[in-house]
Amino acid sequence: MSRSWSHLLLCCLKGCIHQAGCLFQRMPPVHNRHLKWCRLNSQLTSGRKHKQSAEISPSEWTSPLQLEPVELDLDYLCNPDSVQDIQNNIGNRKGVGDIHLVRKLYECYQQETDPIKRQDLHRKFINAALNIPNRSHPLAPIGDESKARLVETVGTQRNFDFEPLTVVEIGEKLGHLRTDKLTHTTGPKTYFFKDGFAKLEQALIRYTLSKILKKGFQLVGVPELIHPDIVEGCGFKTTGETVQVYRLCPETYGQVCLAGTAEMPLAGYFLNEVLDHKKLPVRVAAVSRCYRAETSGVEEEQGIYRVHQFTKVEMFGVTDGNSSSGDNLLSEFIGIEKEIFSELGLHFRILDMPSVELGAPACRKFDMEAWMPAKKFWGEISSTSNCTDFQSRRLNIKYRNNQGNLRHCTTVNGTACAIPRTIMAIVENFQEKDGTVLFPKVLWEFMDDRTQLSKSYHHGKIHWIKFSRSK
Ligand SMILES: *C1O[C@H](CO)[C@@H](O)[C@H](O)[C@H]1NC(C)=O
Ligand SMILES: *[C@@H]1O[C@H](CO)[C@@H](O)[C@H](O)[C@H]1NC(C)=O
Ligand SMILES: *[C@@H]1O[C@H](CO)[C@@H](O)[C@H](O)[C@H]1NC(C)=O
Ligand SMILES: *[C@@H]1O[C@H](CO)[C@@H](O)[C@H](O)[C@H]1NC(C)=O
């Protein structure tokens, strides 16, 4: 206990000195976060019993995150009989991963007697093995996007007797959206929702939650700042050329990424857990801001379709590896999504996604695409994946089966509502010739009984004012 007290004092001191130094140098205080924690903690502990203060250990904040060693399926990965199978799967996917390298490193590691070299070979072997994608479901189509299998089409395409406008045209005309003149405020691929769109966003969140919380999901408020190891554990890269996850400057903030989807912190929530078999499946849901570095030059994806940040209601499930119970969860998620998009009156289709589209973690993935009438294309509004044990092996999420043995869980994720794209589908499909938009009936109660979108009261125009700096 005395150690933790002296540590506390020391870090408060360090923080203060640092802060003072920064003030003098007029630089942003680098360890501000740390300092705040110290203040908070001394507030928390002052006037309380010592027992409580000793329980709050600062070590978790100062020492690096240590993940359990990844328990890969070596029986499969290192089995000579699986090589062809794995090689074919890599070929069917994006071609990432080298199973021959994995096997070669594994052999060298086994033959090596020098303990230091052995350790190094083991690390290299694991790193190579982590690049091998999950097995694909036997029923998943093989090939690229064009091989997606149409499972079902819901609703019918509306016939317009006028040329439908885009969500950006409608939003800006009525004063509910701003996607231009943002460069000095936020940069490209961002937007402001105003009035009607901002209320529509909240209504969609509340409607979606009211739906899924009735179905046994537990709502979780998630942190959007997460450790890169959790992101990697979910199967996303955090370094390299094509990385789509934002990472804060490590010199200033340490190891911090911005979550690209709530699935990341939700998966991280179960890190190192052993779940009770009787309580499976566990269903959780979160509303979060999602941050994506990706860009696109495709014309259809301009506007609010592909953006750097947006709000999403996400479902996440953890279950056992039992196929009989397991398959149900994926279809349950798909059923919920179907219900939501049908009630919103959208015209959409469900696709069984082919191998190239599965990413590394998923063994099967179903996308839902809504018809976007202005630019006349199917736009992805939801994606649901069965990741089997890919994430749970990396994040050490287990359950004890009926025989008392520890087994890795299966994780399933699915989009309940990605806000900007759902707004786009609603606004474009339900626009009237007079320029107004009729809201889906299920949203009325969440919109103070407003039934349609008309011109905003706060419709101001932005004027650029040239100013010169006076000396
Ligand atoms: C992926 O899926 C299978 C089960 O479908 C599992 O046994 C295997 O270990 C997983 N592969 C990886 C590389 O995690
Ligand atoms: C899977 O479920 C079946 C039927 O409920 C059961 O007999 C079997 O033991 C389960 N397997 C595991 C690994 O839990
Ligand atoms: C996921 O896929 C595996 C492998 O095909 C299957 O056994 C399991 O039942 C599926 N789980 C879910 C939740 O769909
Ligand atoms: C679900 O997980 C898979 C694999 O991690 C990922 O590719 C997909 O984007 C996730 N879907 C959502 C909606 O987060």
TrEMBL record:
SUPFAM superfamilies per the UniProt record, alphabetical: Class II aaRS and biotin synthetases
Signal peptide as annotated in the record: 1-22
A GO term for molecular function? ATP binding
Q: Which Gene3D superfamilies match?
A: Bira Bifunctional Protein, Domain 2 (3.30.930.10)
Can you cite a GO biological process for this protein?
A: seryl-tRNA aminoacylation
**Domain spans labelled Aminoacyl-transfer RNA synthetases class-II family profile:** 199-440
Span-the-membrane segments of this chain are: none
Enzyme Commission number(s) of this protein = 6.1.1.11
- Record key words, sorted: Aminoacyl-tRNA synthetase, ATP-binding, Ligase, Nucleotide-binding, Signal
Q: Which family does it belong to?
A: Belongs to the class-II aminoacyl-tRNA synthetase family. Type-1 seryl-tRNA synthetase subfamily.
* Name of the featured protein: serine--tRNA ligase
Q: Which organism is it from?
A: Potamilus streckersoni
